[in-house]
């Protein structure tokens, strides 16, 4: 049984096997969690992402998919990059958001990762309402078969932490 934990803090400081990056499809860095992971992880992550773009993902990583790279200078072994959907009020894209969690856990299992840290995918600049993002994240992780022993949601602020805590209750 996978243990789900919550941490209020910085995802780039998590001592886990795999950190999940809420990446953009270019895989070349950006703002929010993505920018922080690339900055703190250093140039090895960007280099690995460029290699992915040159081989399998010439057009970028599709929304809802996941792929792993080195973690560079982070205190993790790997970074699993996943591209969350932008929130559109007139279109239900929750299946794509759920896919980010399922696909990331699948990649974690392929890597042999036992501890995985997730941010609140799509709940930042992609505009997904935090309550719904937390519901989808928790339900999907609970419903996904994985060999990970711990899935940790790392939330940057108190409000996000409380919303995720409500979902776990």
Automatic annotation (TrEMBL):
Keywords: Hydrolase. Residues 1-169 form the Macro domain. The keyword Nucleotidyltransferase does not apply. CDD domains: Macro_OAADPr_deacetylase. Its EC number is 3.1.1.106. Gene3D superfamilies: Leucine Aminopeptidase, subunit E, domain 1 (3.40.220.10). This is O-acetyl-ADP-ribose deacetylase. It comes from Streptomyces nondiastaticus.
